[in-house]
Amino acid sequence: MAKPGQGAKYRGSVHDFPDFNPSQDAEALYTAMKGFGSDKEAILELITSRSNRQRQEIIQSYKSLYGKDLMADLKSEISGDLARLILGLMMPPAHYDAKQLKKAMEGAGTDEKALIEILATRTNAEIRAINEAYKEDYHKSLEDALSSDTSGHFRRILISLATGNRDEGGEDRDQARDDAKVAAEILEIADTSSGDKTSLETRFMTILCTRSYQHLRRVFQEFVKMTNYDVEHTIKKEMSGDVRDAFVAIVQSVKNKPLFFADKLYKSMKGAGTDEKTLTRIIVSRSEIDLLNIRREFIEKYDKSLHQAIEGDTSGDFMKALLAVCGGED
C-alpha cells in the first residue's frame, strides 16, 4: 500500500447518509427516548450512520421541534462507555478534541499520552480549530492550560505543537542534511558537537515541531544515510519520559499516521483490561478522516481485523456502536 503522502488517499469509515432528513431523524430519536426505558439500538444505529455534519443538523431540528437539548436528553438515557462514544460522535470534531485535551489536564494527574496523541497528529487547520473551540468552551486559551499543567521541555514541545504552525511546503535537501546532523548530534551518535545541549535540544524540537511532513521524511532518510540508524529507534534508546514519547509520536505520525493509530488501538485492547477511553477517542476522532486506512494497517500488522479485536474485547451496545462506526469486517 502506498504510504499516505505518496499519493495514497486517506479515507474515513463514516460518510454522509444519502437520503438525509434531519427532522425525521430528530423525531426518531425523540420516539426512541420517550417513555420508560429507551430503545438504545435505535439510537446508536441512527447516530453511527450519520456524518458529523448531519448530526449537527439533527441537534438543531430536535431543538426546534421539541424545544429540548438533544445532548442533554441523550445523557439522561445512556451512560458509561456507550454514552462517552455516542456523545463524542455528536460533538463537532474540534470541540471533541478540545474536550479530550481538557479532560487530559483535569484532576490530580495529567494524561500525557492523550495530550501527545492529539497534538502530535492534528493538521494545522485542525489545531487552529481546536484552539478556537477550547477558548469558546472553557474561556481560557489552550496554551495557558498546557502551560499550567505541564513543565520543562515537554511543555515547550506541546505548546509549539499547539500553535498549529507547521510548515506545509515540500522538502529542502540542504536543510534536511543540516536537520539530520542536528538530530545525530542530539541523539549522541555524531562525532562532532556544535554548541551546548540545551540549544541543540531546542533546535531538534524546532525541526520536529515545525518542519513539514514531506521535509521530515527526507530528514529521516538523511539521518539513516548519515548514521545507519533509524531516527525513531534512536530516540527511544537515547531519550526518556514524556519528551521521548512526544518525539516518537511525531516521528511515527510523519512516517505513517494511520499505523500510529492502529498501534494505539491495539495497545488499548491488549492484555487484561481495555482502555475504553483511548479506544473511544481514536474511533470517534478518526471516523471521518482515516479509519479505513487505520483498519488496513491494523490487519496488516496484527493479523486480525480491528473488527475482530473490538468484538473480542468489548461487549453489549458499546461493542455494537464501535463496530457500526468502524464499518465492516476486513
List key phrases describing it:
mainly alpha
Secondary structure topology:
Blueprint: H1 22-33, H2 40-48, H3 52-66, H4 70-77, H5 80-90, H6 93-105, H7 112-119, H8 124-138, H9 142-149, H10 152-162, H11 173-186, H12 197-210, H13 213-227, H14 231-238, H15 241-269, H16 276-286, H17 291-302, H18 306-313, H19 316-326
Helix pairs in contact: 1-2, 1-3, 2-19, 5-16, 5-19, 6-7, 6-8, 7-15, 9-10, 11-12, 11-13, 14-15, 15-16, 15-17, 15-18, 18-19
Main location: cytoplasm
Keywords: Annexin, Calcium, Calcium/phospholipid-binding, Cytoplasm, Repeat
Protein name: Annexin
Task: Walk me through this protein's architecture.
- With 330 residues, the protein is mainly alpha-helical.
- The chain is 70% helix and 0% strand.
- Helix 1 packs across helix 3, helix 5 runs parallel beside helix 19 and helix 9 packs antiparallel against helix 10.
Summarize the structure.
This protein has about 325 residues and is mostly helical.
Helix percent band:
over 70%
Morphology call: elongated
Terminal Cα span: 15 Å
Report mean pLDDT, rounded to a whole number. 93
What structural class results from the helix and strand content? mainly alpha
Q: What is the radius of gyration computed over CA atoms, rounded to a whole number of angstroms?
A: 22 Å
What is the count of helical runs? 19
Q: Per DSSP, what share of the residues sits in E-state strands of 2 or more residues? A: under 5%
Which H/E pattern describes the elements? HHHHHHHHHHHHHHHHHHH
Q: How many beta-strand runs?
A: 0
